[in-house]
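Running this now, will post back.
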Amino acid sequence: MSGPRLWDRCINHRGVETQRFIADYFSDQYRRALLIMGAGFDPRSANVCELIVATMGSRAEGLFIREERPNPNREIVKRAALNLKHLTKLLPKSQETPISVFAPDGAVIGGRNAVRVVNGLLLDDVTDIIVDFSALSIGVGFPITRLLFERGRSIRKSFNLHLMVTDEPLTDDQISPTACDIVETIHGFKGGFGLFDSSRAAKLWLPQLIKGRGAVTDKIHAYVGPHDVCPILPFPAFHPRLADELIEHYLREFESIWAVDTRNIIYADEKKPLDLYRTILRIADARNRVFDETGGSLIVLSPIGSKVLALGALMAAIERDFPVVHVEAIEYKVDFKTLDNNRTEPGEVMHIWLCGDAYLN
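Update: finished.
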């Protein structure tokens, strides 16, 4: 039998519920919040910030992370500068910090650089920290969250840690990342991958799929060398047939490379990261019982698709120390004309209360 899970009872909100939570919870004059967020080109950059400032005003301050990649597109740089100007106006008490995602030799260093910056923050007067994934990459957001989670649970005067992200699939459709050539575990999420103690373990790879990333999944599959693959498909999803379209899109991989049994496909509600979190842990518990006496089981995660679902993978990885294998984007290609024309709504904000006062008992 598995023991109690950290987030069996997790406080979370979405859309209007998130807005109500922010208006109620952060209206307490005692609260002082630090908002850690990306200051990039993404039009969703300011959504969470606007909600927080509307309730907290000067009681909130910001850490704006500007992810820097080589040879950025001119329009991307222009829009990032406009977003940063808007964010700074919303939060005058803010710190802007550039983060180099790649070293001069091409090594991926974004996660390490971000952790170094966040680890140096003075948090004595902060009651709540919000990590906004809306404009943060997975390779930067995951290490920051793990650091803050472990720090928040280890110090005597703790803080509340919240995760938020703006869910807007139409915007995701217009942003195409170009992957670099390096496949590796995200900083802080190596788990047992590559260790001698795990050399005999039965490896199960759980890739979260999205269209147009076949080359990336091929690289990760070759790097992980799994014994089995359980692809994660979004269903229900904003696009009703997305799961079927993804199966068609990855048909070659399903049949010829990954040898996926249809019973091994994981369907995860695109709007409910906690469902994916619980599903991953159920799979892990079942495999631990089966493989306990034959070398053990090693689950490897690759959150390639929706950031909302990626939060579920993040929570599972933190709780069980699962390795997370990732390929960083070296650039982004964006159809800004289509993006601007299609953005009729700001999207829904997802909130997860990760640790703090709500879990003291």
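The chain has two domains: 12-174+338-359, 183-327. More later if anyone needs it.
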